[in-house]
From TrEMBL:
Name listed for the protein in its UniProt record: Enoyl reductase (ER) domain-containing protein
Domain Alcohol dehydrogenase-like C-terminal, residue spans: 223-348
One of the record's GO molecular function terms: alcohol dehydrogenase (NAD+) activity
Reactions that this protein is recorded to catalyse: a secondary alcohol + NAD(+) = a ketone + NADH + H(+); a primary alcohol + NAD(+) = an aldehyde + NADH + H(+)
Subunit organization: Homodimer.
Length: 395
């Protein structure tokens, strides 16, 4: 991680306390391409920071929301995006842990550090700033920090997304959702810690706590699935089986040792995995958000001790495709948010270990494309066509 992709980090004090006009990719309605608009970004409120973003990337969750797949979560106009990195431009009242010029990574699952949840070692959720797909405003006052002039000439609010809204040159974050990172860390890579890499690697390390010599199956080899494989590799898993319908995603570089094309398998995938592993894997990870795949992942684990970790975003109101009696075979299933990392308190240590060579995370293996922010709709198309893992957009 020697290269530093941080670009120009000029700190302009003249903008502090004033609205900033900048470019943003606005989602006006579901299913339509994003529109590049000039938006006004208000100064940060209490316990908030305004961040000049330098890099952002696109996740399948952004694509799902843009399509409007869950009607209950539709709220437009909106600025999507939740993977990014940038520099604090200014801070609001009461902010003590961040200052203008700090390098930060936004996180959708915040950590205030003071509530009962944050003080508990049993969860990475926060009582106030946890991820909430229905939330579209700031926690401090229920308002938005973005506004735009619509087609009729009227200025109207633009809603927030997953505590982050990174498809803009500037954004406003709750300080609980901004992680300070090493000033020399390459921000073009650090943006992947906002979601994909942290979620997958953390699922392997924290949620499953994969042990050396174990067997693993990963269903869905997108960025999160490959991050699971990377985490399993770093933990010394003996066998990592990747399952996908796209054979081009099979990559031993990311830790996957075997590949199953679920369309060409000729039998239920769980049967093939049980045959390959003498009864099933120790751990399976569902990274697709498809109910039938979740069932295959669950049944692919070994009875008596198998653990399935659910990471895919499943559209409501679909229910889990399991019968309660199937849990009496000793298999377990659990969900995972942000890799069970406490973002504010744990991610800086991960970055430091990457910087000093103690931890060798393969960031470059996830970045398949780099483009200017103006090409964001092209980047969405590549993701939807299965031609990219992560496309990093630079402002």
């Amino acid at each position: 991680m020697a290269s530093n992709g941080n670009g120009s980090l000029a700190n302009d004090a003249s903008t502090r306390g004033k609205p900033i006009k900048c470019k943003a990719a606005v989602a006006w309605c579901p299913g339509e391409p994003l529109a590049m608009e000039e938006v006004e970004v208000a100064p940060p409120g209490r316990l908030e920071v305004r961040v000049k973003l330098l890099f952002t990337s696109i996740c399948h969750t952004d694509l799902s929301f843009l399509k409007g797949e869950n009607e209950l979560q539709r709220k437009f106009p909106r600025i999507l995006g939740h993977e990014a990195a940038g520099v604090v431009e200014s801070v609001g009242e009461g902010v003590e842990d961040l200052a203008a010029g700090d390098h930060v990574v936004p996180i959708f699952n915040g950590e205030c550090g003071a509530c009962a949840y944050c003080e508990s070692g049993k969860t990475n959720l926060c009582g106030t700033y946890r991820v909430d797909p229905f939330k579209s405003t700031m926690a401090s006052d229920g308002g938005t920090r973005f506004s735009v002039v619509d087609g009729s000439g009227e200025r109207r609010p633009v809603y927030h997304f997953l505590n982050t809204s990174t498809f803009a040159e500037y954004t406003v974050l709750d300080t609980a959702c901004a992680v300070k990172v090493h000033p020399k860390a390459p921000l073009d890579k650090m943006c992947l810690l906002s979601c994909g890499i942290s979620t997958g690697v953390g699922a392997a390390w924290n949620t499953a706590n994969i042990s050396t010599g174990s067997t693993v199956a990963v269903f869905g080899l997108g960025a999160v699935g490959l991050a699971v494989a990377e985490g399993a590799r770093l933990r010394g898993a003996a066998r990592i089986i990747g399952v996908d319908i796209n054979s081009e995603k099979f990559t031993k570089e990311m830790g996957v040792t075997d590949f199953i094309d679920s369309k060409a398998c000729g039998k239920p995938v769980h049967e093939a995995i049980r045959e390959m592993t003498d009864g099933g894997v120790d751990y399976s990870f569902e990274c697709t958000g498809i109910n039938d795949v979740l069932r295959e992942a669950f049944l692919s684990t070994h009875d008596g001790w198998g653990l399935t970790v659910v990471l895919g975003i499943h559209a409501t109101p679909k229910m889990m495709p399991l019968h309660p009696m199937e849990l009496f075979d000793g298999r377990r299933i659990t969900g995972c948010v942000f890799g069970d990392f406490k973002g504010k308190s744990q991610l800086p240590d991960i970055v430091d270990k990457c910087m000093n060579g103690e931890l060798n995370l393969n960031f470059d293996g996830f970045i398949t494309h780099k483009m200017p922010f103006s090409d964001i709709n092209k980047a969405f198309q590549l993701l939807e066509e299965g031609k990219s893992l992560r496309c990093v957009l630079h402002f």
